[in-house]
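Provenance and format

Records in this collection were gathered into a single text stream. Each protein contributes a sequence line and a token line. The two records reproduced below are adjacent in the stream.
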Amino acid sequence: MGLPGNPPGRDADEREFDAFYTASVGRLIGQLYAMTGDLAESQDVVQEAFARAWERRAELDLDGAPEAWVRTVAWRLAVSRWRRVRSALALARRQGPAPAVPPPEPHHVLLVEALRRIPEAQRRAVVLHHLCDLSVEQVAAETGCPVGTVKAHLSRGRAALARLLADTDLDPRTDRLPEAKHG
């Protein structure tokens, strides 16, 4: 007897598929590992192939050769991944080496270190409001918090940052703030 709302025989189908999975997953991973030479990749593609088999379980003949179908799908997934990686590497080679990136400015490092030390909710509100230029209402919508809560996070976050940045180049009480660079 099926669960309420399930078509008759669904429980049996699920049990049959579970038994198929349990009986063949290890064997298929081993086979794909032998074909690909990469255990993690083999586990990933076999799991993805089983997920696709689950979606098509009504069409999949568990009395026929379902293991061959899963193995073929897993192999095709592995080949597809290799092609994507190969294409990405070819593109990277064509573009040449990445340009040199200058180290972060000292005031940027100070700010990031201070931000890391305040609670996550305050940090998120401060970054969204002050660095992303979102209004308090937009921050509230994005974080799912009431406007009053966002205002409290901002107030507490700014106070915590002021304490953490006291006596540094970013101390808001001094005129030592670095000038903004305009391009």
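Adjacent record:
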Amino acid sequence: MGDIKVLIGKDGWLFLQNDTNRVVEQNNGTLKLTEIELKKWLRTLESRFAILKNRGIKYYFLIAPNKESIYPEYLPDDYIISDDRLVYQLLNACKPYNLPVYYPVDTLKLYKSEHQLYPSGNTHWNGIGGFIAYQYVMNIIKKDFDTNILDWEEINFVDEETSQDLGNKLTPPRTSIFSWGKVKLPRAQIIYDNKAINSGKIQITLNKNTSLPTAAIFHDSFIEFLLPFIMESFSKIYLFHTPCLDYDLIEKINPDVVISEMVERFLIQPPVDF
């Protein structure tokens, strides 16, 4: 196995291995949050919820499932996916406190028999997986705010054969099909993008419909595949590629909603907010 970052599964499906977050050990249940790390997570989430509630802002934390959590059937036979892995350790710890943490693993699994939600050559969900996650989180937010949620009929999904994050780690690079989601009649657009790659990236979106709520989203790369949809549900969104909340920034923006989005494997590192 060595330090090869790509695990080749069944039917040519590619998965991550030997990464800094030790995703294989997270998945098999041998790598968990320590008691101190779990307490850090709880303290961080309780603080976020309380501070933002005090400012009249609703907070939602969306955990994007690992690809392995949705498609374990394509993993090698000796690869173990534990039902007691780290994400459930955190979710179970949050339950007694009614913290707004959401993990759409079961919702995504409901759709996988009719749609491919993650490409075979990428760790991320595709546009279809992103759209299902968008509808999932917006249905939660809609209980608190008057906003609109796009329906399937309003989206075109376009397939493109391309080498992606995992495929690019192989020599020669391996291509796979990626489904992009495009809104047929968009009302929102990205009005600012600092063009940074990953960490430090900042974007602002603006919607013609100014009656919708505003949002600040602190995220990782999974949000890219929700963005075409979610910007249609808010009048303005400020997006920051970081796992940490910046309370001074939030105070200046004064959004109605703050959303954190983080992929399951990143939970091993509790964030430190500003």
